[in-house]
Design the sequence.
């Protein structure tokens, strides 16, 4: 339709901004794809086997978790929704999140993967000749498969010539395949960035909108709250919490979110204070529109530009916070994470360069990509460019 | 008046860097020393571009280099060449801009800014000499030199800022002064003083002046000759008397006819007792009760709106800004009441108070017989539909992120007008077409429309709720005169056809004369005069009203 300002035109405008931004979009798209397809890309269990007696089995799919299904469905819905231009970006975002939540709920009710996985079971079976045919993942090692059946496998450099095995990016100090761990760790990097920023945005926008719209006492109290939370050092709070409570990803997300909201609240407040006096908002109030419509239909869409920019930078800093924590050895215990791999690089007597280069490079590229995206968003959402943009 | 032209412009053509259609094409004119040429035209006619080109201020990259020849007698070279313009700017050619606040540097005192001009253009002067020249320049524009020189721009009023701008432009004693809408942002009474001042100074220094304006009243007050521009061309040029009294070009005639005082008298004497029952705006309601109703739909007594001035850490209230200080106002059904006053007189606050957007400090406000003063938000809800508003700035009054259709139908749904979405859409379409906009308007976003179109959309949006009272806050002051005429005529018809009442806030006395049944003159939050339009305009009693009328060119 004519004059349609949608997410797609925005995306196209960002993509048209030059090589650096295009690199950022490609990298983030690749990262999301790898994260969504991780279990199929790197797994010790074969996708399909035909036993010696002719029976078929799908060991990989039998071990699919609700999380795996949600990531996969989320990836597909993102692909579909990005091409579906008939409805607004905000609505598509809500639909996408709804679909993911729904599949997660259904999948966790239906799927019962065995808690105990014997990673080398099918390798052993193939070696023993119990399997006639097997279809393996491109990287036939799970992230937590420490290759016990091969004996000592720790700290082998990339592409080391070892019979029977092939590790593109070497192995870590436990003997796990680094490539596989990198692939699975991309999920943590992506999810911590998005969920922590999402939590911060929800809190920040709500409080900021209330401060900007009502002003007066609410503004006064809200601003003091903002100042208090701005004074809390995120990293030390995270360290304290993981020291006292369990090391869990949701806890980290919530804490990063709880300390990152004041920035968003400030932006929202400033925008709402500005918008409150503008004629179309005054007109909306004078037409008797309900408050929720005034706030969310007429004010918020006109306040998203600075928020979108800040959120892109926020995602990058959340990823860095998790990497820092994991590097300090206070991250998740057994789950792969880029920061934790960096920690392994310096832990043993020798400097294991492949454990520093690959995860470090991935962190660098991702943070850089989000920063580039943030800068591009700032330009793309500039109202003057928006007006001449089509 | 000498006949030797001081400024000669031949074949000035301005084109966008990536465009082929010229925005200003083949402009030829000349100005003699001591003469004022007014360049008149509506927005987009290219008059400001012409001024920028003469000063070498066209943004490079956006515009292609200007073509043609512009020479200043006694100075070699073509002014349209940026290097020549840079040499001449300030010393021989000076400019005054529309918005004095943004044309002055807010972090420098006025005196320092004027002295800076001298540093470049009169380097032989000693610091003390400069100071004396600054003082002389400020005195010449009738300002208290000592105080104003030490002030920052924000400490001055709009009129004082514009005077300071003039002092700054004239301090280097230029031969040519270019004034781009120098009085548009000022109150009418201030505007008259500034025009008088410009006229005097120009005579005294025998300067040539290129005066750019859209206001035809101003032309008659300031100019010797007029050039009328339309779409980048001069369509008519001549002395003020020739052009105003016997315009030749159809566009000039249309421009003159669009002035409120030249409009055919508005249909009157047809106040209705009740609202029209027909939902469609297209069905002209001929059943027009001739008896004027005395039922007041708005009755305000002793309205007071005070804004506290708070100081210190404890935010102690040390005083009040009295935006409205005991205002009485009554509007009857089908009546047009104009509220007149300068900026800061409280007229917009009055509009906001009537709409329930501004809590009252004291007083009573009753709408349709119900007392509304300081009632909670939900109590206003039934009244909201019946009182609607149209604001001054058409660029700020429509939410840029939503389609016109959604903007018009959303309040309709809230007030349960129309049976379903399709019906509401139909009604919205009827309203936009009734206001002369294409039907596909509803599918579009606000930024696809011009200022005049947006203002009509804003009116359609307000009328779609079938209000009984429409608050119009300076709705035509941002519009060109032909658009203003069109909107005034449409409103006049709506008043007759639908028994609509208007609270018409304005500073334009000509508009008041055309549209209003009664006038209320506000001055510093108080009503200083009110009554029937003809009475107030013909026999103004309060000195402020008299001043207002004189400034607007009513010489009765």
Sequence:
């Amino acid at each position: 339709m004519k004059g349609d300002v949608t997410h797609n035109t925005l995306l196209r405008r960002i993509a048209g901004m030059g090589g650096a931004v295009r690199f950022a979009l490609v990298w983030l798209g690749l990262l999301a794809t790898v994260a969504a397809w991780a279990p199929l890309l790197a797994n010790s269990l074969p996708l399909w086997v035909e036993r010696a007696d002719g029976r078929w089995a799908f060991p990989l799919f039998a071990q699919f978790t609700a999380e795996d299904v949600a990531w996969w469905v989320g990836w597909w819905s993102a692909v579909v929704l990005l091409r579906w231009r008939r409805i607004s970006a905000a609505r598509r975002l809500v639909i996408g999140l709804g679909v993911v939540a729904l599949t997660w709920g259904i999948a966790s009710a239906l799927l019962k993967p065995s808690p105990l996985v014997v990673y080398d079971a099918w390798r052993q079976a193939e070696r023993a000749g119990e399997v006639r045919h097997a279809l393996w993942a491109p990287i036939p090692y799970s992230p937590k498969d420490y290759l016990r059946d091969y004996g000592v496998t720790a700290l082998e450099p990339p592409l080391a010539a070892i019979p029977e095995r092939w590790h593109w990016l070497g192995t870590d100090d436990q003997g796990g395949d680094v490539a596989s761990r990198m692939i699975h760790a991309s999920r943590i990097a992506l999810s911590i960035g998005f969920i922590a920023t999402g939590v911060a945005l929800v809190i920040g926008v709500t409080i900021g909108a209330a401060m900007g719209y009502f002003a007066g006492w609410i503004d006064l109290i809200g601003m003091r709250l903002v100042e208090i939370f701005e004074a809390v050092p995120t990293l030390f709070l995270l360290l304290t919490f993981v020291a006292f409570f369990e090391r869990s990803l949701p806890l980290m997300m919530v804490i990063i979110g709880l300390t990152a909201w004041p920035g968003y609240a400030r932006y929202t407040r400033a925008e709402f204070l500005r918008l409150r006096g503008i004629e179309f908002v005054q007109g909306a109030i004078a037409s008797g529109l309900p408050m929720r419509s005034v706030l969310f239909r007429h004010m918020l869409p006109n306040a998203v530009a600075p928020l979108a920019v800040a959120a892109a930078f926020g995602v990058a800093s959340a990823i860095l916070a998790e990497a820092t924590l994991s590097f300090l050895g206070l991250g998740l215990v057994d789950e792969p994470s880029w920061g934790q791999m960096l920690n392994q690089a310096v832990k043993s007597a020798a400097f294991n360069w492949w454990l520093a280069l690959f995860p470090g490079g991935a962190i660098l590229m991702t943070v850089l990509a989000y920063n580039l995206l943030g800068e591009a968003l700032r330009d793309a959402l500039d109202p003057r460019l928006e007006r001449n943009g089509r | 008046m000498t006949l030797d032209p001081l400024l000669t412009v031949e074949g000035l053509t301005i084109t966008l860097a990536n465009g082929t259609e010229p925005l200003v094409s083949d402009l030829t004119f000349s100005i003699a020393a001591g003469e004022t040429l007014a360049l008149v035209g509506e927005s987009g006619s290219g008059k400001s571009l012409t001024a920028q080109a003469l000063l070498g201020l066209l943004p490079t990259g956006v515009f292609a280099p200007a073509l043609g020849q512009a020479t200043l007698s006694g100075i070699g070279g073509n002014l349209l060449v940026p290097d020549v313009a840079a040499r001449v700017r300030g010393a021989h050619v000076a400019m005054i801009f529309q918005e004095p606040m943004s044309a002055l540097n807010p972090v420098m005192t006025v005196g320092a800014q004027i002295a800076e001009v001298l540093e470049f253009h009169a380097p032989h002067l000693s610091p003390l000499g400069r100071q004396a020249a600054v003082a002389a320049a400020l005195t010449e524009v009738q300002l208290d030199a000592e105080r104003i020189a030490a002030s920052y721009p924000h400490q001055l009023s709009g009129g004082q800022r514009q005077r300071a701008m003039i002092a700054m432009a004239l301090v280097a004693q230029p031969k040519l002064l270019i004034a781009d809408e120098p009085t548009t942002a000022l109150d009418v009474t201030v505007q008259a003083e500034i025009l008088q001042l410009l006229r005097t100074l120009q005579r005294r220094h025998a300067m040539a002046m290129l005066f750019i304006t859209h206001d035809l009243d101003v032309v008659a007050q300031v100019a010797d000759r007029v050039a009328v521009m339309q779409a980048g061309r001069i369509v008519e040029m001549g002395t003020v008397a020739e052009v105003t009294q016997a315009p030749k070009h159809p566009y000039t005639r249309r421009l003159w006819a669009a002035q409120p005082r030249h409009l055919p008298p508005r249909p009157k004497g047809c106040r209705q007792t009740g609202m029209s029952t027909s939902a469609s705006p297209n069905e002209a309601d001929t059943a027009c009760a001739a008896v004027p109703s005395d039922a007041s739909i708005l009755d305000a007594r002793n309205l007071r709106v005070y804004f506290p001035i708070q100081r210190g850490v404890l935010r102690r209230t040390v005083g009040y800004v009295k935006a409205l200080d005991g205002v009485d106002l009554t509007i009857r059904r089908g009546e047009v009441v104009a509220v007149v006053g300068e900026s800061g007189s409280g007229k917009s606050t009055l509009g906001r108070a009537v709409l329930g957007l501004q809590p009252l400090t004291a007083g009573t406000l009753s709408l349709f017989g119900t007392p509304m003063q300081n009632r909670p938000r939900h109590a206003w809800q039934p009244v909201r539909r019946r009182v609607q508003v149209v604001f001054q700035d058409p660029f700020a009054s429509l939410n840029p992120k939503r389609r016109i259709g959604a903007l018009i139908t959303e309040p309709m749904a809230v007030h349960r007008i129309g049976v379903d979405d399709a019906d509401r859409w139909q009604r919205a379409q009827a309203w936009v077409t009734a206001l002369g906009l294409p039907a596909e308007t509803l599918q579009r976003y606000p930024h696809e429309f011009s200022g005049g179109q947006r203002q009509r959309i804003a009116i359609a949006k307000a009328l779609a709720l079938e209000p009984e009272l429409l608050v119009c806050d300076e709705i035509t002051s941002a519009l060109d005169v032909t658009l203003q005429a069109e909107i005034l005529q449409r409103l006049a018809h709506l008043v007759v056809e639908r028994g609509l009442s208007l609270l018409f806030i304005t500073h334009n006395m000509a508009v008041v004369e055309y549209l209003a049944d009664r006038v209320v003159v506000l001055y510093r939050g108080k009503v200083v005069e009110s009554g029937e339009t003809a009475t107030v305009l013909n026999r103004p009693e309060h000195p402020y009203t008299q001043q207002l009328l004189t400034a607007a060119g009513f010489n009765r």
Q: What stands out?
A: Residues 195 and 221 of chain B are 7 Å apart (CA to CA). DSSP finds 20 helices and 19 strands in chain B. The radius of gyration of chain B is 26 Å. The domain at 333-359+377-551 of chain B is CATH 3.40.50.300 (Rossmann fold).
